[in-house]
Amino acid sequence: MKVKNRIENIGLIKFIRFTILLIILTDILLFRYDLQAQNSARIELVNANSLSFDKNQNKEIKKLIGQVILRHNNAYLYCDSAYLYSESNKADAFGNVHIKNNDTLNIYSEMLTYDGDARIADLRNNVRLVDKDIILSTDILNYDLSKDIAKYNDWGKIVNKDNYLTSKKGLYYTTKKEFIFSQNVNLKNRKYDINCDSLKYQTKRRIAYFYGPTRIITDGTFIYCEYGWYNIQKDISRFSKKAHIFNKSQKVYADSIIYDRLKSISKAYRNVTLKDTAQKVQIECQFAEYDEIKSTSYATGKPLLKYFMENDTLYIHADTLKSIYDTMANNKVLFAYKRAKFIMKDMQGMSDSLTYSINDSVIHMYKTPILWADKNQMTSDSIEIKTSDRKIKRMYMYENSFISSEEDSGRYNQIRGKRMTADFDENKLKTILVEGNGQTLYYAIDDEKTDIGVNKAEATNLRIYIKSRKIDKINFINSADATLYPNKELKKDELFLKDFKWYSDKRPVNINDLYKW
User: Fold this and answer.
1) Cross-strand bridge partners of residue 76
2) Cβ distance 297 to 321 under 8 Å?
3) pLDDT digits (tens, 9 = 90+) for 347-406
4) What are the φ and ψ backbone dihedral angles of 47, each rounded to 5 degrees?
5) pLDDT digits over 413-465, tens only?
6) Which of 182, 290, 373, 475 could form a disulfide with 297 if both were Cys (CB 3.0 to 4.6 A apart)?
7) What's phi and psi for 192, nearest 5 deg?
């Protein structure tokens, strides 16, 4: 009994599986039948003023003349005259040809050949595709109604409000409302002129994508990239792959650049280089932003500024570089803040922050600044450096000023005062004016360059002359208290003025040292 029930159960399972398989096969067959029926639907004659058969041709060929209307599935064909081939399910149309496939799409031409089974229309002579505010014009257009794709291979143009586009080849996906243009694509409007290899335009989102070498001219600016997009509605564009932007005075290179035209803000990402040819300044970084309205820009990601002088280059690095243009004073000011360092041939420096005024060529160093010139180390609460003709001319040191140099290992010439003014010649330190509580300690050498002892002096004000990178002589402006001590007479702690510190380990000697703190 149990065996019998088991056999019956197995038979029932097989029957259920067979039934499911039969349903699936039936659905597939019905789907194929519906698809075949749809593709093989006959072209219908809706209207014609006259109908005749050409005796010299097959009797199945109908000659239609006057206000001809044909229908195939949901598409309508209007023309002045046509040949309808019933057996092959094809049609040729002539004169004022018009295809209407949906509420918005209309195609016009002088001639048409239509294959009803393949649902492909070939239109010739003065072809115009109109979809809402878009007008595509060409001489030869292939329209696949089954895939909703219109294409041309021998030049066409698109007119859309203010836009005018031409290309050798083009595709239009009528359902997705998407164009793809290729080969010698040119897009013009009142804002820009674009030339590229390929361009895709999404009409619903109003976004244009460009591929391959692309050149854009807008407002006197030249843009190049090999991939990018432009959102027409939001007026935002992005350029990448060898992207660069040129105008009369500036050049920008980056892996990627985003430009918001409405906000007038540009952003550059990765491997960024900004060149100001007018000011002879170049900035390299990983991110930069420029605000045209505020005339401000800033750079982060290991930013490095290069200021090209006559016979030298000034390199400046900080966590952030910021530039502000004062339109009233016609002056651009550069800010380098948090761990600022700079280096040039005859001078190096570091401070928490610094500013550089382009108009008056002045560098200000703030918060524990250290400056090195030749063999001299200079420190103060703040330092101001004036340049002219791209050369250092004068330096002001405010409060707690200190200048020192290493005579030899462990021995240091030192100058201390409240304020100091240093003058330069060809970027080399020449004289130093010390004002307020002036103190000096230096190793005296006679005419035969023999070390004769340690000279310690104090005076309210004094002037120091530098020769061959060393102290040559000192003029005491006020009465001075000076003593020359024989070598080894002073104790070790007496060989250093108050607050003396030596920062040789912090001195940058090459560009890589700028990034070390």
Assistant:
1) 71, 100
2) no
3) 899 999 999 887 788 899 999 999 998 788 999 999 999 988 767 889 999 989 999 988
4) -160, 150
5) 999 999 999 998 877 888 999 998 889 998 887 766 777 889 898 888 989 88
6) 290
7) -155, 165
pLDDT tens sequence across 334-348: 899 999 999 988 789
SS3 percent helix, strand, coil of the chain, rounded to 5, is: 10, 65, 25
- Tokens found for residue 258: 């985003």
Question: What are the distances in angstroms from CA 498 to CA 136, 307, 403, 464, 493?
Answer: 84, 36, 12, 19, 10
Residue 415 burial (C-beta neighbours within 10 Å; 0-12, 13-18, 19+): buried
CA distance 368 to 365: 8
| β-strand pairing of 320-326 with 313-317 | unpaired
> Which CATH fold topology does 48-154 show?
lipopolysaccharide transport protein A fold (2.60.450)
Domain ranges of the chain: 1-31, 48-154, 367-517
* Residues pairing with 395 in the sheet: 385, 422
Would you call 297 exposed, middle or buried from its count of C-beta atoms within 10 A (0-12, 13-18, 19+)? buried
Find how far residue 446's CA is from the centre of its chain.
62
The radius of gyration of the chain's CA atoms, rounded to the nearest angstrom, is 42
What's the rounded Cα separation, in Å, for the pair 165 and 137?
Answer: 10
Q: Alpha-carbon distance 261 to 253, whole Å?
A: 19
Read off the amino acid at residue 221.
Answer: T
CA 166 to chain centre: 27
Residue 469's nearest CA partner among 384, 405, 396 is: 405
Q: How many residues does the chain have?
A: 517
Q: Please name the residues in contact with 487: beta carbons below 8 A apart, sequence gap of 6 or more.
A: 451, 452, 453, 454
Does 48-154 match 367-517 in CATH topology?
Answer: yes
| Top CATH class, 367-517 | mainly beta
Three-class HEC string of 83-124: EEECCCCEEEEEEEEEEECCCCEEEEEEEEEEECCCCEEEEE
Residue type, 383: I
Amino acid residing at 471:
I
Q: Structure tokens of 271?
A: 């491997």
Residue 76: CA count within 13 A, CB half-sphere: 12
- Which residues fall within 8 angstroms of residue 417, CB to CB, at 6 or more apart? 401, 434, 435, 436, 437, 438, 439, 462
**φ and ψ at residue 57, rounded to 5 degrees:** -125, 180
